[in-house]
Structure formats: structure tokens, C-alpha cells
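Quick one: C-alpha cells for this chain, please?
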Amino acid sequence: MYTSFLYHAFGVREQECSCVRYEDNSIVLKLQTRKDKLCCSVCKSKNYIRSGVQIRRVRSVPIGSKQVILEIKVQRLACKDCQSIRQEHIHFVTGKRAYSNRLARLVVELSRVGTIKDVAHHLHLSWDTVKDIQKRYLYRNYNTPDISQVRHIGIDEFAVAKGHIYKTIVVDLETGRVIYIGDGKGRGVLDEFWKKVTKAGIQIEAVATDLSPAFIVAVTTNLPKATLVFDHFHVVKLMNDALDEIRRGIYREEKDLNKRKVIKGTRWLLLCNGKDIFDNKYKSRLDNALNMNEPLMKAYYLKESLREIWTQVNKEQAAEVLDKWIEQAYEAKIPKLTTMANTLKAHKWGILAWYDYHISTAKLEGINNKIKTMKRQAYGYRDQKFFELKILAMHEKNYAFFG
């Protein structure tokens, strides 16, 4: 068989084929290393004595629908120069694996368009073998992300499973890459990441997070020169939660059945952006609910005006709007609004930092949604390391490994 065919089809370049046979619906190629290529696997010396032989069978890429098995005669060599007794090195297979490097590459390519189960069925491999090939590829290419050019990062957590099991991710906001994954969501979960930052000698300029005390302490302690920006979507969400709790309290306390009917079912109308309500029926229903209850009306209009903090021309005007909002919240004398005003007052510096760096955790929310989709497609992951590697590779456009 031509050596060029062996190389281009199976990645074999130092062996020659002495025989081809058909066995159990498979094509078996009998190979042995050419004499001019045989050498000591330690020192590459050709001064050796043959000390036995072993037959090794390795799966390779199929020909059509037929499996291909490379049956190679592996020589055991006793080197006279380095005194080692080793088997010859087989270049087209790694270690003691039962599949060739060319087959592993084919598995990786097919994994971009199909599930592990699909690839295993198509190539007549076991599910564990395909998953092992994927994991090795991901580990080799994505296990240690390059953070040398990172300047702006976002930090957020996501739920791994029910029962308050979380992981924390750090994302490069300029490229959208996940550069670190930690177990849990406490302050110490980022300790390893800070060590990597120090070792790489990089200067992170800005960090976007929610209002989590653990993240605030971790960032201010380990990155004292970085600007901490509180994500405005999380701030708005806090206000939405406060408004919803006020609505629930009013509904519980209301004795008039007619008024309860008006308030019931208005959650979506209260929480959505007022400018998005074009239907007159919905608008009149919202107006009726607000007109019959002053606390609800105050909370709603404060919710609507909260977004104006991030629409100002400069930071100074935004600070004035924020101070005015806090003052109005206090004047409302509603406990939930007072708590919200206290929260904004305490985090004012991080909220206004958005005018220094226009960053948010929006990319992280998108990544969290992709992670949820990936988990559903795979019906969960038993191997957490494999799960983390897939997350680290998620930013690649042509990467589509499924469960």
C-alpha cells in the first residue's frame, strides 16, 4: 500500500503496510515500522538490539461505513547507548490509548455538530471514549485561559443545581471569554483568580458586579486601584422586587373585593417599562390600580424614574438625579422604599461609576442563559470538570460540543 495513502488517510508516516484483510465487518491494516525509521525511543539512537515484539491494535478513521483497525507490530528495543529497554515510539497514537490521533481529531470535528451519543453511534465508539476525547481536547486548549490582556471584567454567579449549589464566573467584558470558574459564591471563591492576576502582573481597570457584599469586599481588597461598577440592571431589579412586595402587601391588606380584583393581575403592568404599554385597555387598568392606592402609585413612579440615573449627560447630573430620587423615596415614608433608598445611598459611588466605565454584567447574564441551555441539552453533568471546560470554551463561535 502506498505510504502517501497511509499518511493522508490515517496519519501514518513511518510505517509500511504488509497486508490488508477483512475481519468482523472491519478493515485491518497490518503495519510495521520501516527499518530506516526504527530507533530508541529515549535517545533516538539506531544502535540497538531487538528484544521482542508485541502486536497492538488501534482504531483509526473509518473508510465509508467500515471500521479501520491498524494492527501494528511494535518492536521492543534494547539500546546499547543509553542502556534503556523500551518499546519503539508510535507517533500516530498517544500513550496506551486504543484509538489513533487522527480518529480523535475526527471525533472533535463531528462533536461540533452532534451530541456525544450521536458521534459514538456514528463511529461505533463507546460514549465514554467520545467524552474522554472531548475532555482532553478542551483541557489542552481551554483549561488555562490567557488573561494577559484583560482590563475590564465582570463577576456573577449561577446555580448549578437545586439546593443552593452555585458557581462563580469571571468574564473578560471586552472579548466575552469566561476566564475563571470557582465553586460557590462566597468571598473566598475568587482567591485563586486573584493569585493568577498577581502572577500575570496585569492591571485590571474596572470590575462590574451586582451588589453582593462578598464580591464588593473581594474586589476592593484585591483590586484597590480598580473602579467597581454596580450593574444597573441589578439595581433596577431590586426596585422591581420592592415594588412587587408593596403590591402584594396592599393586596393582602385590602378588604374591598372590587379593589382587590383591580390590583390582582397587575404585576406585569407594574414591572414592565411604562413606555412599552401601548394598549389602551392595559393602560387604563394600570391607571385604575394606581389611582386607588397612593403608596402603590408612589412606588411605581419612583420605579419609572429610577432609569433616569443612567441617561444623564455626565456624572454630576446623574448624582443630582440620584440624590433627588433618594429624597423622594424617604418622603414617601414606605418601609420598602426607605430600605431601597438606604441601599442606593450606601452604593452611590458604585452606581455613579458607570459614567467612568460604561460596563455592566449583561454579557454574564447572556452566558448564564447559554449555560442553562447547555445543561438542559445534556440533562445535567456528572463530571464537573468537563462541565467547567465546556463553559471556558463557550466563547468560540465554531464551538458546539453538546452533552
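The chain has 16 helices and ten strands.
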